[in-house]
Amino acid sequence: MPQLRNTLIVIAATTVGVVSLAGCSTTATTPAASGGGEAKTAAVIKGLDNPFFQSMEEGIKAADDSITVQAAQDITDTSGQADRLSSLAGQDFSCFIINPISGNNLLQGVAQLKASGKTVVNIDSPVDPDAAASANATPDTYIGTDNVSAGNLAGEHMASLVDDGAKVAVIGGIAGDVTSGDRVTGFTEGLGGKGQVLETVSADWDRQVALTKAGDLLRANPDIAGFFVANDIMGLGVARAVADAGLTGTVSIISVDGVPEGLSGVESGELTATVAQYPYAIGEMGAQACAAAAAGDELPENVEAPVALVTKDNVSDALAAAPAPFEDFDNPFAQ
To answer: What GO terms are given for molecular function (predicted)?
Structure first.
């Protein structure tokens, strides 16, 4: 799959933005880009207890500070997130940005929106396409990271750091999670035959769980040469386990996300590298997609956001630009 380091596809010439509250909302209106009447946008995203989704909210705000944003309580709040969308669906919004916790927890609400002729912009975590098609709940566009490509970058970099046949451990998120699985798949492909990949261990996207699981792995396999970790927060838990074992700088740790704490971890040497994706840009593009729809523009079926490998060599650039992308990119829709 293509590696999208420098290409950011943005949907509209009109910028739109956000007022955000977790679990409650403020409503405002924005003139439609076509100049006819008012367009109102609402967003339902994952929990703001995670810095990744905090950055996503910032991106929506940067695009349009009139958007109503509601968030799940946390990464397990599937029913609460669905309730928020159902409540908003009965109001007079013309476009909805959704970032579902699972592939199907928002399908009922999306089906309600599509039956009402509303625009649905799916960002970051995709709805299950087969279930959506069966429920007449297919979003108008999907905007997000190619997680296989993100994992692939990590695997290629790990291959440059470890010896042939070296043991490489893999820490995934929640067992069965599509995002985690895609990142692990991409990592394994990128690593090629360079390392001996141990069985993936799930750490539930949690720092403390990752610390415990990594400690167990190091005790069972003291010759581990590297860890691939499916997000930065877990990566920092792994880094603590590696430090506790006295192996900082000896065992390579590569994670995915590029959240501020992860970038700081690369700067300090706790993490060897992170593959940065851009939740800020994804949120911003979601708002811009709604602006484009209000202007009468046709939305593409899929939009891929960029990823970039951040190492000690370029982390200062990444930190200076955060939460926005630090590399140049083409924006074919910007006016």
So the answer is: carbohydrate binding
